[in-house]
Specification:
The protein has 423 residues and is an alpha+beta fold. It is built from nine helices and 23 strands.
Length: 423
């Protein structure tokens, strides 16, 4: 009996120890779970207020270019996912919502990154132009603190479909090809084609097409070395900023620049591009072009008011300008940017504007050409060189006075200006 009693007592003590250890383990597990739950809940404290660059609490860049006027709103939906709203940050878009993954990197800082594809077209003002396919891919990354400070880097990329096969650098064509039998320009860096339903006018325009293509090409080649349609949507160029000179041309029509002083335009988000079908759209970014120092001050916002601009156009009515038609065309430009046509084949690229592109604007403003007959004589009376240029222009056009341009344009059958580039 004593042995049985001692065994029972030992068993009882052992059970007490096991119960104690189990209770301790359970308590530790519960405390550990509480701590874990508390860590998981910290994402709920991430600020969801609007954070502005102007306040200094948001440090923003777009393609590496600082943005000083946009704002960010961060919404955490869970410990690992949320969304960032970019307001007035991505050029051409008032607001972009990007779904992001988030992760606590410690010290009350959450890192995030995400990507979104946009099918709506960028616009100088938002008039809700919508495309069927993705145009731009927006990628963001950064971090946000519990104190409401955010650092965000946004990168843009023209979708492959919207690149139209023309992303890259294109050099200005360097050859003027003429038909030796008649001396007519067949191809050149700038090619002007203007024909009329009036045969007499057509003869004058043939001379203008030839001289305009030749001298225009010599001027262009001396000032524009190349254009780059960057994959991030920026348009940049290599250009000459010196005094006006024309490139030289040898007997074979090969052009040579008179200098080697080319400058590279900065990648400052000044204008964005994309293609759709046979069209290329160029959308200026007014904020980045707010002043001459915009490369150094990209955050300055220009004072731009479309209503004020349209109102000021009314003054042109007294010069014969069809203000209603002009406003209609300018509204289209504000909606979708500048529209040109393009054709890429092999190592060649042609960018052009035909009558369907620019005809309505020219028709609206050309009645004002007669104003030049009154204004120019006063402006050039003491400038013989300028007066000589005016006479050359009239000679090219085959006119005695600028008022004659309206009749010539009304009889226009075909009109096209083409720029040619090579890889």
């Amino acid at each position: 009996m004593d042995r049985v009693g001692k065994r029972s007592e030992k068993d009882f003590i052992m059970k007490k120890k096991l119960i104690y250890l189990a209770t301790l383990a359970l308590a530790m597990g519960m405390f550990s779970a509480c701590d874990k739950d508390k860590a998981d809940e910290s994402w709920k404290e991430i600020p969801s207020t609007i954070i502005t660059a102007e306040s200094g609490d948001a440090t923003l860049t777009v393609n590496g270019v600082p943005d000083k006027s946009g704002n960010v709103k961060f919404v955490a939906n869970s410990a690992s996912a949320g969304e960032v709203t970019l307001a007035n940050i991505i050029p051409g878009y008032n607001s972009v919502v990007v779904p992001v993954s988030i992760a606590n990197s410690g010290k009350d800082v959450y890192k995030f990154e995400g990507k979104v594809s946009l099918s709506s077209a960028p616009a100088m003002i938002q008039l809700f132009e919508v495309a069927k396919n993705s145009i731009y891919d927006i990628t963001v990354s950064g971090e946000i603190t519990m104190e409401g400070k955010v650092t965000l880097a946004a990168e843009t990329a023209v979708s492959e479909a919207a690149q139209g096969g023309i992303a890259g650098t294109w050099k200005t064509a360097d050859q003027i090809v003429t038909d030796p039998s008649v001396g007519i320009v067949k191809s050149s860096p700038i090619m002007l084609k203007w024909t009329s339903k009036n045969e007499e006018v057509n003869t004058k325009l043939a001379s203008l097409n030839n001289l305009g293509s030749m001298f225009g090409s010599m001027a262009l080649f001396n000032y524009l070395q190349s254009v780059t349609f960057n994959a991030d949507g920026n348009i940049t160029a290599s250009y000459y900023g010196g005094k006006f000179e024309m490139a030289t041309m040898n007997d074979a029509g090969k052009l040579t620049a008179t200098h080697n002083e080319w400058k590279a335009s900065p990648k400052g988000n000044f204008a964005f591009w994309y293609t759709a079908g046979e069209y290329i759209f160029i959308v200026p970014n007014f904020e980045a072009m707010s002043d001459d120092d915009s490369a150094d001050k990209p955050g300055e916002t220009p004072d731009f008011d479309i209503k004020e601009m349209i109102s000021s156009l009314k003054d042109l009515k007294e010069y014969g300008v069809d203000v209603t038609a002009l406003v209609t065309e300018l509204t289209k430009i504000m909606k979708q940017g500048f529209v040109l046509k393009f054709a890429a084949e092999g190592n060649g690229l042609k960018v052009y504007a035909d009558k369907s592109i620019c005809g309505n604007i020219i028709t609206a403003i050309i009645p004002a050409a007669k104003m030049l007959d009154t204004v120019l004589p006063e402006l050039i009376k003491d400038k013989p060189e300028a007066a000589q240029y005016v006479q050359i222009i009239k000679g090219f056009l085959g006119i005695e006075k600028f008022a004659d341009l309206e009749a010539i344009w009304k009889a226009t059958d075909e009109f096209c200006i083409t720029l040619s580039f090579t890889k």
